[in-house]
Amino acid sequence: MIYFDNAxxxxxxxxxxxIYNRVSGECWHNASSEHKLGNVAKNLFSKAQQLVFKTLxxxxxxxxxxxxxxxxxxIAIYGICNKYxxxxxxxxxxxxxxxxxxxxxxxxxTKGFKVVYLNxxxxxxxxxxxxxxxxxxxxxxxxxxxxxxxxxxxxxxNKIIEIVRKYKKIKLHxxxxxxxxxxxxxxxxxxxxxxxxSSHKIHGLKGSGCLIYQNNINLDTFLHGSNQQFSKSGxxxxxxxxxxxxxxxxxxxxxxxxYQHVLKIKEYLVNELSKLEFIHLNSSLTGSPYILNFSYKDxxxxxxMHYLEENEIYVSISSACNDKKRKPERTVLELTKNESLALxxxxxxxxxxxxxxxxxxxxxxxxKYRK
Length: 371
Ligand code: PLP
Known about the structure:
three-stranded antiparallel sheet, alpha/beta, binds pyridoxal-5'-phosphate
């Protein structure tokens, strides 16, 4: 079996599973209880928070452990924007964000916000000039992803920080899901206001992620209740939080090795795929080494996906389809402006669990496909 769908989710690592089981079994008490057992749980929770801050080399931050990046993105965006409902404020994102950001912005558009969706350049990065031109005194939030989950392009976060910081009022949110714990941190977490990560993309558990944010920000309450985690109420998932922090710590330690490992796999595949005249590459080697997107010309994505599946190779197709209507993949369409390429795109995504032999087998199999 070859699993090339690690941007969708990764296999939980043994240390993460072990720590989750241990904490669930031994320290299952409520971290908000006032008694001794509650205090033990509270201390463990605080250690998990500190480990997140230490790993990200950040100070002056809060962390909310969430059910994943979707929840973290929603808490960040509504946490900032709810205060501005009815003020016609401007909020800026990009056309190629994950739906957990994009759909928040679409919803906020219906609530009177002036929303700007930035274009991407030929290399998949945002149009920085457009960002400069769109910012104004009415802007309250900019939300931009670090690494694109479909094509692997990497936005220059330092450049974005520099641009946005000219306006004191604006909060900057970075969806860092496909970068954190995978590629080296090239910006200071302290320089952004809010940052989202997802633990299950870095060998943590499904249903876990974090929102890290500047502690002078008062996020609008998202879940009303006892405010256990600032704006997120509900009994703290101690084992999940400890496991999340562990996954992050381990992923960071592994970045230098894993990065080089997956880069070799991607380089091999890019080299081999570019020799095939029926393949169009939608990713380049300048992007994340973890993601490689290509189009198999004139064959719908799902046809190739099922063919690969028959050969026990698992990949992602991002072009959703129902029985009657195929939808071009949004990011590939934005990048190539070519509907046919967007209807035939395939995403391969890698982790430390993959080998160069996986890549060789993949090329053998893809070459054998006959229309
Ligand atoms: N943001 C990005 C860039 C993603 O790739 C994903 C998932 O693929 C998410 C957000 C949502 O993550 P989660 O599954 O943890 O909610």
